[in-house]
Every structure is written in structure tokens, then in C-alpha cells.
Design a protein that fits this description.
alpha+beta; 11 helices; 295 residues; Arc Repressor Mutant, subunit A; 18% strand; disordered C terminus; 10 strands; three-stranded antiparallel beta sheet; Jelly Rolls; 2 domains
């Protein structure tokens, strides 16, 4: 089937946002593309979403960010009704310093931030009624806030080590997998399988390329996300530890203190206090340079 251009909205001037329900009785949507950005936010239910040549299964809290010209469509399961919010906007509304040209992606909102995310969507929807002459400006501000929210919580862009050698593509694939799945229990065997390498060889190559062992790198990623959650949410330290992939909150607190020189609670109260230099060692703990020299 040849994709068709989205009729009636091939060009838009304002931000368009609407909320709806879809299910298996919804008319089938053919492959299509359009000349503006779209954010498809699934609030409840489950569906499939094709983006370019990949089909993603979406659940509550998942979203799809679609760039202009990208072929896409959604499909719905029998007996499952989905509630969704769709946001359409042109390139001039992008927060360029954060998202750049904003390529298409599928992402999941961490459960710690779902309430904040749904609240933001609700505020955007409330402005569509045209409350007053400021509604358009508020909608623009909320869109910028949403894009910053996605960037802050690694939903939009997930930083990876710079790998300049094509021979390191397997390690790059492994670091991407860790960033996307750090909240899950991950083992050396799991990640080495993603890289299509034996665990022993993967462990050696991973440290050679990244400068960190597998466990060290995984802890680094988890702690960075926990640090952000401590400063941007009111969730308990135990919940943050579990959400960031630590199955033992005491281990998390011990590791956090070794990295930042104080407990998670102290850090949350006084985040501007200088931290000790970060360095992670083979046992999974971070130490200062002086500690490493003594070892």
C-alpha cells in the first residue's frame, strides 16, 4: 500500500491537541504521513503502533513522537478500548536547544513521573476550550514544558558514549539497551546476548571501550536517574531506588553515599553542596581518585 498524506491537515498554524477513545470498532487507519510533528500519548488500554518499518506495542504511559514525513498508523485489539491524547504542531514550536531536529521515537514515561505527565496533558487540554486570550500562549508554554519533561527523564534523548569506531557497534548497542532497560533486572548474560558476544569477551570489550565494567556502568546509569528523581519528585527514597532498578534500598543508599558523599535524604535537602569526584570501581562502588590510587 502506498502511504497517503494526511488530508485536511497537511499544514497547520497552531498547536492542535485533542483527547479521544479508540478501539477495534474504530475505522482502520491506513499508512500515512504529514508535514508536521505529532505526539501520540496513550492514557489507557493497549494498542499497536507502526512507525516507519517497526511495530511497537503501546501501553498506558507510552507515547510515540512522530517527525514530519514519517510513515505511521495505529491498530487496536478486539475488546480493548484505548484513551489517547494527540498533539499536533509544526517545527517552529520545537524547543530547539533541547530537542534539536527531534527525530521520531517511541518512549515510556517512568511510573514515578506518570502523575506529573498526566497533569501536564490535562492542563494542555483545558486550554483548548479557549479560556481567554492567553490560552494560545499557555498551550505553547505547556508544549515546551512537555518537550523538556521528555528530555529530562530520558524519554526523548538517551545519551550514549561516543563510539567512533564501527567495530564498537556491538558495545554501542549494549549501552543503548542498558539506557532503555536499566529499571529492569539486568545481568551480564542478558546484555552480552544483545551484543551477540560471549559474556567473557563482552565483559573485556565493554570495559576497554567504555572505561567501565558492566556492573559499574549499570550502577552509573541508575544513580544518575535516581539523582534526577530525588530533585524532581516527592517519591520516597525506597520507591525511587526500586524504580531505578535497585532491588535493595539499603544498597542504593550505601552506593549513593559513596558517589555523592552524603545520603539520598541529605542530597535532596541540600543538592548544591559540592560532591566528591565520581569514579566507579570493579565492585560496583564509586570512589574518589585518592581512594583509587591507594588501591
Amino acid at each position: 500500500m502506498t502511504p497517503f498524506i494526511c488530508r485536511g491537515r497537511s499544514d497547520i498554524d497552531n498547536i492542535i491537541i485533542y483527547k479521544g477513545r479508540r478501539g477495534d470498532n474504530t475505522p482502520l487507519q491506513p499508512d500515512h504521513y504529514h508535514g508536521f510533528y505529532e505526539i501520540f500519548c496513550l492514557l489507557s488500554g493497549k494498542c499497536r503502533f507502526l512507525l516507519r518499518d517497526q511495530v511497537h506495542e503501546l501501553e498506558k504511559g507510552d507515547l510515540v513522537f512522530i517527525a514530519p514525513g514519517e510513515v505511521h498508523y495505529s491498530r487496536y485489539y478486539p475488546g480493548i478500548n484505548c484513551e489517547m491524547v494527540d498533539i499536533l504542531f509544526k517545527k517552529s514550536f520545537l524547543y530547539k536547544d533541547v530537542v534539536g531536529n527531534a527525530p521520531s521515537f517511541m518512549g515510556s514515561i517512568p511510573s514515578l513521573y506518570l502523575e506529573e505527565y498526566f497533569d501536564l496533558l490535562g492542563r494542555m487540554l483545558s486550554e483548548t476550550t479557549g479560556l481567554d486570550e492567553y490560552s494560545a500562549d499557555f498551550t505553547t508554554c505547556y508544549l515546551q514544558q512537555l518537550l523538556l519533561f521528555l528530555a529530562r527523564h530520558s524519554v526523548m534523548h538517551q545519551p550514549e558514549p561516543e563510539l567512533i569506531n564501527v567495530r564498537d557497534a556491538d558495545i554501542q548497542q549494549a549501552t543503548r539497551f542498558i539506557y532503555q532497560n536499566f529499571r529492569r533486572p539486568l545481568t551480564l548474560e542478558d546484555v552480552s546476548e544483545v551484543a551477540s558476544l560471549s559474556p567473557t569477551y563482552f565483559s573485556k570489550k565493554f570495559k576497554l571501550v567504555t572505561g567501565m565494567g558492566f556492573k559499574e556502568y549499570l550502577n552509573y546509569v541508575r544513580l544518575k536517574h535516581a539523582q534526577t528523581a530525588l530533585l524532581t519528585t516527592n517519591n520516597t527514597i525506597t520507591n525511587i531506588a526500586l524504580e531505578c532498578g535497585f532491588n535493595d534500598s539499603n544498597y542504593f543508599k550505601d552506593l549513593f553515599r559513596k558517589v555523592y558523599g552524603r545520603s539520598p535524604r541529605e542530597y535532596r535537602k541540600n543538592p548544591d553542596t559540592p560532591c566528591c569526584p565520581e569514579r566507579v570501581c570493579a565492585d560496583g562502588y564509586f570512589r574518589s581518585g585518592k581512594d583509587i590510587d591507594r588501591r
